[in-house]
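Support request, please re-run this one:
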Amino acid sequence: MDIFRFNSKVKNFEEIFFDSHCHIQFDDLDESIDSIVLKAQQAGLNKLVVVGIDNESTLKSLDIQEQFPGYCYSTLGNHPYNADKDCKFILDLLDKYPENFCAIGETGLDYFKNNLKKEIQIESFYNHCEIAKRFDLPVIIHLREYKDCIEDCLSVLKQTGVEKAIFHCFTSDLQDAKKLWEKGYKTSFALLTFYPKNKHILEAFQNCPLDNLLIETDTPYLPPQNMRGKQNKPYFLKDFLMFRHNSN
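Re-run finished. Output below.
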């Protein structure tokens, strides 16, 4: 299930015009899942990747995948905020549904607002990466703040031999992005790319090779600049198409 295109060349932006990271399974959304998916399809999105952050949200993402087969795809993992929780459910679900998940994660490191010690986060991230390598699945990585976490992150990726890595909601600059692209990793850009203060992220997005590029919303978080304070939705990714059109 190579939906992130690690094993094939990307010919045009339209092929990667999908939400590579959303949480439409969360209970507090102000719009129904049916409505969100319909509007995403109407906006031309190819698919939605519904990302798990713990056991419960993973099971809900799997339910959505079953409800919208071939359009919604499920991932499984513990968010860094949940790094102290057991990863056993990941292996149990992969054993039970070996073909049903497109990636491991959301996992990673958060040294900004996470109360859990670095050692606990690193151990959890390491375990996720080992599972990703074992099942030949991409790993979806949360880093915050990027420059505080990146060296620990790259060290774990090297130790575990992970080659398929997606840096979710990339927030660093072009120089750092190039280091990831050289390793074959993918950087996923959220709508905060277009916030006025984030010119360094925009520069990275503008220079990102198609084979290293993904886009996302992180629904319900990180809405477009003109909708700050409201919930984000996958169909808002049309802003990326508008930006590319206006830039050409």
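The radius of gyration is 17 Å. The beta strands are 19-22, 48-50, 72-76, 101-110, 139-144, 165-167, 186-189, 213-215.
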